[in-house]
Amino acid sequence: MNTPLRAGLIGLGMMGRHHARILSQLPGVQLVAAADSSGDPHHAAANIPVVANVEQLLAHRLDYCVVAVPTADHAQIGFALAAAGIPALIEKPLAPDLATARALAVAFDAAGLIAAVGHTERYNPALRALRARLADGALGTLYQISTRRQGPYPPRVRDVGVVFDLATHDLDVTTWVTGMPLVSLAARTVARSGRIAEDLVVILGELSDGTVTSHLVNWLSPLKERVTTATGANGCLAADTVHGDLTFYANGSAKTEWAAAEVFRGVTEGDITRYAIPKREPLLGEHEAFRDAILGKDAPIVTLWQAAATIAAAEAVLTSATTGGTAAPEQPRIPRPRLASDYALATTDPSSR
Q1: pLDDT at residue number 333
Q2: Residue 203 phi, psi dihedral angles, 5° rounding
Q3: pTM of the prediction?
């Protein structure tokens, strides 16, 4: 019988409690201990030790660790884990700035360790289906990617604004589903809820092939909305990531005989199809992928370098909002995808750690 991977968790807050739930049930993994200086406010760490800090957590002979603390603390904990030889799954955003994100990526690379960032939307069934259909050419020439992500302010967020906390989802998803980088961004932000950081942003962008992107993100709306729409020559695909639904709106093939209406419509309404797709919890998919990567399997994790590119885009958004002009995201060096054999842990018996 294979020995389960020994996992640790740092942070037992609003997000950490969900990581604890998944880790406690994940096949092939044993959650052995958690760390949080505030204890376990949500009673998420049932029957495992809860220690105060990362140094005490390392005494539990971890095979990997999940980091679910405020963004400002990612660097200190990430560097400690890299120095200790512990692979890490770090919540998004990876870091509060590009320089720190790059430094974390370099640290884990230098140690030969697998590390990933929790861009959970990449595991949303609706977005995975959208990406696959775009790759198959379902829309023909792609014209636009647009997203809407709005809802009430989440009390869990205290150290970053809406750009780093929420818009990073949309910036990452846009480049991931299309396979193209953002090359230009223009944005406007406002702060209306009494916080120093921005709580609403509107972003207009351009991908490397000229595809237009647009993103509406805020913490000010009582309407919770999570929608990604791709529009192309053949129609549009709309992903509702709250419910995991993907709908195709086809351009109609019937000719419009009413000349006056044809002038204004451009395309006609065709068939509407809502696809039946398997719906699995995105966070579970994220953990399964990281577990499999630790075990040396080919798994779709979000690398630290990929996450750093998203940080670069978020910084460009804030630069544009400050200057009133457009900004080009700095493109971090993204190494080739590494093979499992490149990582020290892939050839190490986890039980020996």
Answers
A1: 67
A2: -125, 135
A3: 0.87
